[in-house]
Design brief:
Rossmann fold; 12 strands; 31% helix
Length: 329
Amino acid sequence: MPIKIPAELPARKALESENIFVMTEDRASAQDIRPLEIAIVNLMPTKVATETQFLRLLGNSPIQVNATLLRTAEHESRNAPEGHLERFYSTFAEARERNFDGLIVTGAPVEHLPFDEVDYWDELAEIMEYAQKKVYSTLYICWAAQAALNYFYNISKRSLPRKISGVFPHTATKPNLELFRGFDDVFYAPHSRHTEILEDDIRKIPGLEILATSPDAGVAILENREYRQVFMTGHFEYDRDTLAKEYERDVLKGLNPDIPRNYFPGDDPGLIPTMSWKAHAHLFFSNWLNYYVYQNSPFSIGAIQPNEVPDALQNSRELTADSVRGNVK
């Protein structure tokens, strides 16, 4: 939350130069306050664990948040407890007339499939179109980030020779951006994926901007800031043991996985993993909630205006069957 000070106070310039959020008394007096409406489209099979991870991060903020859990109707979840989805989740069809201040779309373990072979792809496309019209800011995570970049900008995901798994150092290309307020010069975040988005492909698209990169994990965070989309290829939301559980699962499947990097002390899977990303995870989500949603979403949620992709990008959004099936190279 901002600190409220007189506009003429000498400290104002110093604080703003240090990327500290200050609000003048005039702006504070005119600011209306209400709870934020945030929806989470949970595409992960581990529904309970994933919803807990995101709700923990959204809850660590002085901003009141009303959270709505959404699921796709076209996919049958085999891992959620019986009755859990019916009791706590709405389908997209049930929520599509509502406006939301923010929307989070999680990752999903379907990287090996071309996008249009995912059984809920058509419904996800509807959700992404809906987000452009009735959501102020949308945060796409991991596979969902790749899906949205493909859908809106026709950027292909590329297969990796080995799965990226571990906790990697990152630097912000724009450290003074509101999203990185309070961040250290180097921050860590988990990654777990078989595919990537190339930096060169992103830089060809007008309006997309790379915000954070890793020497080992590649592009980590990017946005189309004018159109209120944020994409993250990693997993700030992961618990301490999430990568360990994924590693054990892959070992049992006989996949001969690499030990997650920078994770187990001494690369010993028998030891408790080191958690080196928790503080920055909370900062990232608090910053997104505050600066990208709370400070900009209109007080009347019905007044949210559509986010139109520029005309220059319309051709890339008209995906033919061939272009979608060719999305993994």
